[in-house]
């Protein structure tokens, strides 16, 4: 077994590999850029080597720099994680030249299956059903348009060396092919150092289901069941689960055996994933093979009990798998929610900055439930614009799907993140969505269910009343604390009062409170009273409240005259008044926001790549105005209405903060 391995990656996956290596008694080496000097993976590793500036193409994907770090530290093997150099055959060859093990598949398998064009040809030759498409090299946008017309719209434009949604576009017409082709090439070059593009038919209403395979160098190839990855945004997976709620045993077995046959055909060893598109009749089509560890591998580990990173290390060390196909169990159900640094209220655009608060739920593992959080950040750390926006992967397990979802709901409500935009509210909303709960989902779920973007969750009246009762009881406690600290009242409980008016989500609730040492009974004049019990004290950012015996988890921020509360994807600003204060507050005018209708604001912190218009140009509704790059993704900003450009405040190469004015219109 290896004594020391180097992890050629960063963030949560580097931390994940370090944890397993530490358990196996293997020393670890981290690599880091200027942006990651104080990163968690650097702190966790036994050694760390500096490899260059923040951009990945100047640090993490520069093979010579990684090789030098290997030489410097005497590492015997390298785990590439995912992304970066994980599917780069030249990197694996470079390691072989210095007799260092690559913890991944052989070079030949990477070349054959890691390249999406080649892998589809091999799959077709092996009799695997594939999606119609053009697998040859496409030289320019004119050829891309011609090919797309022959295949038939809609089409998917994809980076040959891509992954994780990078370099991927869906085009429904010629103009989108021209625009998407160049954008995909740019993203592919920046992320993978390879700008080759291919085009295939986009299958509507698909489910994205993938098979985890594991193979050793002794002729053993197994499948570890499937993962459902249909909840996607911009072709980036957001929520995954294992197993799939859609597959039956016969289809599962057929997909697993086909995945193993494909892996065996190319001499595959290590962990890998064969991805399929599955239609409503459970017909499945080969999509691609990822010759690396997948981001969503924890859900497979939770239902099988197999540590995939450990198996990858053992296979790379020449060991045979210690179990067979019949030993691979499928125990219970697992969910994974990807926590991203992106603002769901701004179209999921990237968000950067300092994590002023980062408190994940406690990890646990029992016979009835489990919570696991794979992360690479810490409270006080920075979220950089240079890398993937993932903060953490929150995973839960339960005996069945309903239980796993319920554990996830509680875990999401308990996850505290402040300082940046994040998608926790959206993840909570999905967990409560009827289509997701029923398992009737496709890869079009987000665009179909949130066509106008995510605007938050509006709680139903019964749930609102639970929040009102909790907020009233909490505010009374806060007022008592405040008067005690100020010393203004001797008999505070009598003078605080029992009658309150609560403003919440556009509604007004008059309540009275009967308090005792164990809690409070909140009375509604037009409905039943509610019993509230909690150990919450003013200043706590998380309130675990029992309302009529049922749990309610609230994230709490104090605001003037009330609270900002967040629960189950809803963000609620609660105001509480005495009856007289409520009368006066109703007379106060509301402040109107400034008019920005004639301005193009930068929706996220990012780099201006192109400006497509000039002062004096007349623009049309939907016309591309400029391109902003953030976290390796290019975002085209378009005109919302017809107008004339009167002023341009930014140029290519400028770094802008959120809401900075890019251009103005007459």
Structural class: alpha+beta
* Terminal Cα span: 69 Å
The CATH topology of one domain corresponds to: Glycoprotein, Type 4 Pilin
**Low-pLDDT segments, ≥5 res:** none
Strand order of the largest sheet: 14-13-10-11-12-15-23-21-20
Count of β-strands:
40
Assembly type of the chains comes to single chain
Beta-strand fraction estimate? 25-35%
Gyration radius over CA: 27 Å
CATH class of one domain: Alpha Beta
Q: Main β-sheet, in a few words?
A: 9 strands, antiparallel
CATH architecture of one domain: 2-Layer Sandwich
- The overall pLDDT, averaged over residues, is 92
Number of contiguous helices: 18
Helix content: 25-40%
Shape designation: globular
Protein model, in words:
There is one protein chain. The strands form nine sheets. A nine-stranded antiparallel sheet has the order 14-13-10-11-12-15-23-21-20. Strands 25-26-27-28-29-30-31-32 form an eight-stranded antiparallel barrel, surrounded by four helices. The protein contains 18 helices and 40 strands. A hairpin with a 2-residue loop joins strand 11 and strand 12 (236-242). The chain has 666 residues and is α+β, with helices and mostly antiparallel strands. The termini are far apart. Among the domains are: 4-103, Rossmann fold; 133-201, ATP-grasp fold, A domain (Dna Ligase, domain 1, 2-Layer Sandwich); 332-421, 2-Layer Sandwich (D-amino Acid Aminotransferase, Chain A, domain 1); 461-585, Glycoprotein, Type 4 Pilin (2-Layer Sandwich), CATH 3.30.700.30; 599-665, RNA polymerase II/Efflux pump adaptor protein, barrel-sandwich hybrid domain (OB fold (Dihydrolipoamide Acetyltransferase, E2P), Beta Barrel), CATH 2.40.50.
């Amino acid at each position: 077994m290896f004594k020391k391995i180097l992890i050629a990656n960063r963030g949560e996956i580097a931390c994940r590999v370090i944890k397993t290596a530490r358990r196996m008694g293997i020393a670890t080496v981290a690599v880091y850029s200027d942006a990651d000097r104080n990163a968690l993976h650097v702190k966790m590793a036994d050694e760390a080597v500096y490899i260059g500036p923040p951009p990945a193409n100047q640090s993490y994907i520069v093979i010579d720099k990684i090789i030098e770090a290997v030489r410097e530290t005497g590492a015997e093997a390298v785990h590439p994680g995912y992304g970066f150099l994980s599917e780069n055959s030249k990197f694996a060859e470079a390691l072989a030249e210095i007799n260092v093990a690559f913890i991944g598949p052989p070079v030949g398998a990477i070349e054959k299956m890691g390249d999406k064009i080649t892998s589809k040809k091999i799959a077709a030759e092996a009799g695997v059903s594939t999606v119609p498409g053009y697998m040859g090299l496409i030289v320019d946008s004119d050829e891309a348009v011609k090919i797309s017309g022959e295949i038939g719209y809609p089409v998917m434009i994809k980076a040959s060396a891509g992954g994780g949604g990078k370099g991927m576009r869906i085009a429904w017409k010629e103009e989108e092919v021209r625009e998407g082709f160049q954008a995909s090439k740019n993203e592919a070059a920046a992320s993978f150092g390879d700008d080759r593009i291919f085009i295939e038919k986009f299958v509507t209403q698909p489910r994205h289901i993938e098979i985890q395979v594991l193979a050793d160098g002794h002729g053993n190839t197994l499948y570890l069941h499937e993962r459902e990855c249909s909840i996607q945004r911009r072709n980036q997976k957001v929520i995954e689960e294992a197993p799939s709620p859609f597959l039956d045993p016969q289809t599962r077995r057929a997909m697993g055996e086909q995945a193993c046959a494909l892996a065996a055909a190319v001499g595959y060893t290590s962990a890998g994933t064969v991805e399929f598109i599955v239609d409503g009749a459970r017909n499945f089509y080969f999509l691609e093979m990822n010759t690396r560890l997948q981001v969503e591998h924890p859900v497979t580990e939770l239902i099988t009990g197999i540590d995939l990173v450990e198996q990858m290390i053992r296979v790379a060390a020449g060991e045979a798998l210690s179990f067979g196909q019949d030993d691979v169990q499928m125990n219970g159900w697992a969910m994974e929610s990807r926590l991203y640094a992106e603002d769901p209220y701004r179209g999921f655009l990237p968000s950067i900055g300092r994590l002023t608060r980062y408190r994940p739920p406690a990890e646990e593992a029992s016979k009835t439930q489990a919570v696991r959080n794979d992360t690479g950040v810490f409270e006080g750390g920075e979220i950089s614009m240079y890398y993937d926006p993932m903060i953490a992967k929150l995973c839960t397990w339960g005996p069945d799907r309903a239980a796993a979802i319920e554990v996830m709901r509680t875990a999401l409500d308990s996850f505290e993140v402040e300082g940046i935009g994040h998608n926790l509210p959206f993840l909570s909303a999905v967990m409560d969505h009827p289509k997701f709960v029923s398992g009737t989902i496709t890869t079009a779920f987000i665009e179909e269910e949130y066509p106008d973007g995510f605007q938050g969750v509006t709680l139903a009246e019964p749930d609102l009343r639970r929040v009102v009762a909790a907020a009233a009881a909490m505010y009374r406690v806060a007022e008592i604390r405040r008067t005690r600290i100020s010393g203004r009242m001797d008999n505070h409980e009598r003078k605080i009062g029992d009658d309150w008016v609560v403003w919440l989500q556009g509604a007004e609730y008059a309540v009275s409170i009967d308090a005792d040492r164990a809690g409070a009974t909140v009375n509604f004049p037009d409905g039943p009273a509610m019993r509230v019990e909690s150990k919450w004290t003013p200043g706590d950012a998380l309130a675990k409240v029992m309302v009529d015996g049922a749990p309610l988890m609230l994230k709490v921020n104090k605001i003037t005259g009330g609270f900002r509360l967040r629960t189950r994807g809803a963000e609620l600003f609660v105001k509480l008044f005495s009856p007289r204060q409520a009368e006066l507050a109703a007379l106060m005018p509301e402040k109107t926001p400034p008019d920005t209708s004639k301005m193009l604001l930068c929706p996220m912190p990012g780099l201006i790549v192109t400006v497509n218009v000039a002062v004096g140009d007349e623009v049309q509704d939907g016309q591309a105005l400029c391109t902003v790059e953030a976290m390796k993704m290019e975002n085209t900003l378009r005109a919302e209405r017809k107008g004339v450009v009167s002023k341009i405040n930014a140029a290519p190469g400028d770094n802008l903060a959120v809401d900075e004015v890019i251009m103005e219109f007459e």
